Amino acid sequence: MPTPQWTIPFFSTLLDYCSSTRNLRILKKLHARTIITGVSHHDFIRAKLVSSYSVCAQLLEASIIFSLTNRRSTFLYNTLIRAFSSLNHFSDSLILFREMLRAHKPLDRHTLPPVLKSCAGVPALRLGRNVHVLVFSNGFDTDVANLNSLVTMYGKGGDLVSAQKVFDEISERNVVTWSAMMSGYGLYGRCEEVFELFERMVGDGVVPDGLTFTAILTACSHGGLTEKGKEYFEMMKDRCGLKPCLEHYTCMVDMLGRSGKVEEAVAMVKEMDVVPDEALMGALVAACKTHGKLELAQRLLTEMTYARRSIST
After folding, report:
1. How far apart are CA 110 and CA 78, in angstroms?
2. Where are this protein's PPR repeats (predicted)?
3. Is the peptide bond preceding residue 276 cis, with omega within 30 degrees of 0?
4. Which residues, 6+ apart, have CB-to-CB distance to 242 below 8 Å?
């Protein structure tokens, strides 16, 4: 019995809704319904299911459906490559990209940014250079997302010369471009370059965002500039109206801990209005160990355990 024409757009719309709302419960019900109605074999619906499961961070389900799809489009490859990369499954992302190349699938402007992110995450600077060639050979050298990803890849890989070269050649820089370049310098404690870039960015009328200040605070932490870091942290809140998130607090805790101001770091953690994660607590415990304050770390860990339990109940 042929599939009614209305079913494909109907399920497509509902699956798009699941993606936009990240509603896994409804997604699973819809998936079951596509099987019952016989449309789950349709490549377009399979592509939508892969996309929806990927957005909901269900990579096993997405991978299984992908493997069952006969006609794997560029969109389908892009979706799963991006999903692996966004959840830090960098090796899986690169394996799938290589499979895409072997299948001779055409690349579009959405293909390479998550690949470059995975190259930075592994890290795989040599592969990243090859991907850089693909960016230009496929005509994506004017696409800001691809160029920003190149800056990030080179910066995280420690090739700051190449990162700066790509950055200098970008004609229309956005806040991501500036933040990526600052982040590269910040990872290696090149504070003066970070501060200079920040002033240039603001001078160009680009409004800094949370990622910008993460890059600056990281630089201050790695460069041992505690007071400067405090100034930028206050600037972020007071002048830019940005609410600090976990990444910013983690940078501050790391920075204060490195300089021996453990009690100040503890006070900041107790006063913040977000629940600390493992990265933040790890930075705090490391600071306590470094400066011989293990009892303080143990007490804080106990308090945070109780706090998490009360939130979960």
Report:
1. 7
2. 73-107, 174-208
3. no
4. 208, 209, 210, 213, 236
Measure CA 19 to chain center: 18
**55 is written with which tokens?**
């957005």
Cα distance between residue 274 and residue 269, in whole Å: 9
What element of type H or E holds 240? none
- Positive or negative torsion for Cα 176, 251, 283, 249: negative
Cα dihedral value 51, 54, 59, 61, nearest 10:
-50
Burial class (CB in 10 A: 0-12, 13-18, 19+), 23: middle
pLDDT tens for 37-89 read 888 888 888 888 998 999 899 999 999 999 988 889 999 999 999 999 999 99
* DSSP state, residue 6: T
Which tokens in the block code for residue 16? Answer: 């798009």
Encode pLDDT of 86-134 as tens digits.
999 999 999 999 999 999 999 999 999 999 999 999 989 999 999 999 9
Amino acid in position 259? S
Cβ(256)–Cβ(268) under 8 Å? Answer: yes
What CA–CA distance (Å, rounded) separates 249 from 265?
9
Separation CA 33–CA 221 (nearest Å): 52
DSSP codes, 129-197: HHHHHHHHHTT-TT-HHHHHHHHHHHHHTT-HHHHHHHHHH-SS--HHHHHHHHHHHHHTT-HHHHHHH
Coil, strand or helix: which one is 302? helix
Please give the model's pTM, rounded to 2 decimal places: 0.86
Q: Cβ neighbours of residue 131 under 8 Å, at least 6 residues apart?
A: 112, 115, 116, 119, 153
